[in-house]
Amino acid sequence: MAEELRESSFQDELTGLPNRRYLLEHVNQAISDDSGRHLTLVYFDVDNFKTINDSLGHVTGDAILRCLAQRLEALKPSVDKVARISGDEFLVLVDDGDPSRIAQLVKRILQFIQKPLVFDGYNLSVSVSAGIARYPSHGHDFTSLLKAADTALTQAKQNGRNTWAFYEATMGVRELRFLHIQSELRQAFERNELQVFYQPQVDLVTEEVVGAEALLRWNHPTHGQIPPYEFIAVAEASGLIVPIGNWLVKEVCTQAMAWNEAGLGNLSVAMNCSAVQFRQGNLVQQVRWALYESGLDPRLLELELTESILIEHSEHVIATMHGLKALGVGMSIDDFGTGYSSMSYLKRFAVDKLKIDQSFVRGMLTSPQDEAIVRAIITLGHSFGMTVIAEGVEEISIRDALATHGCNHAQGYLYSEALSATAFQVFVQDRIESSFRSQRWV
Fold this sequence. Notes:
This protein is of the alpha/beta class. The chain has helices at residues 2-9, 20-32, 49-56, 58-73, 99-113, 142-158, 169-191, 228-238, 241-261, 275-280, 283-294, 307-310, 315-327, 343-349, 358-363, 368-383, 396-404, 421-440; strands at 39-46, 81-86, 89-95, 117-119, 122-124, 128-134, 164-166, 194-203, 209-220, 224-226, 268-272, 301-305, 330-336, 353-356, 387-390, 409-410.
């Protein structure tokens, strides 16, 4: 009986794999016996597993985890031990310390994991990211190795998911910076360090400014300009993105109304909406209140959503989408073509605008594939009655090609970088005056 209890304490109930406790004792014993001179710990985490669970349900989610456990077990004897430590996280122990061989092994594992799974007659592809730590270079016991592998996993996720990263000492420095930025960000509102800049959006036929994209900037008193990709990730991880997003929507509505009253015309202003804010915040109420306080026409506010939000068919996401549409605000899909592009959600949610990702725009004159993608997105958007806007336009030749293909709007350094609210107003007024002078001499 005692032996059975001991065995059950070392086993994961869902998958039947060894658990964290088992692997802790195994690794530490191997190190103690001096038989672990070349151990490597690989920390796997399923990409976007919460989305899978919310969309397909926990029963399917559990079935996916069991399938992944079976696939990892099938890798033996290439790997020594496989364990599930929590949720969608797995550990693989390899009795090898050669970085090149480990990299090739992990690459094969990621490819193997990504092979389609069949559920209820449908193919589902799941990817994982991995962090790698080697003994004794990255730790002298299980706990320190696990911490190093976890840090490397975080870096792999930031690199784009479905990839891997070896632990590096500098990653610890980045973790400390992350914690420091998180602490500082909490005080940024009181210090008025967060600012909104606006990048003009131009009609490709008339060359008139028709709107702007609101972009958040953090001017830190000691660190200087902290790039958005760094502090937005911190804000999302800490939950601060919800109050920041609430402040941003008020700021954007107030500024758009001010431009309208200054005679700049009905300029629409687009702002990015974080997936965290969309899922957790009371977004509809915040937008409704911002519109009411500012007096802005709802049609002049546009929320930019990522495709990852739209593939979630949770009740909260659907209710939020319908609530925003009822308010009359516009909605666009940001970076279209880089994620889970699907015509089903385009039809279901009646999105108003598609934004072509700059990676396709910048390569469209040199890459036939990029040009084909750009043309396909324009055609798709127009077939749904949507406005199509290209971002990252930096050359006249690209602007002309987009116009030829029927793209409606564009933004990028060809026209202007992101500007302060005051500089944006000057920019628009200058273009209006320039257009007026040109018409006088026609």
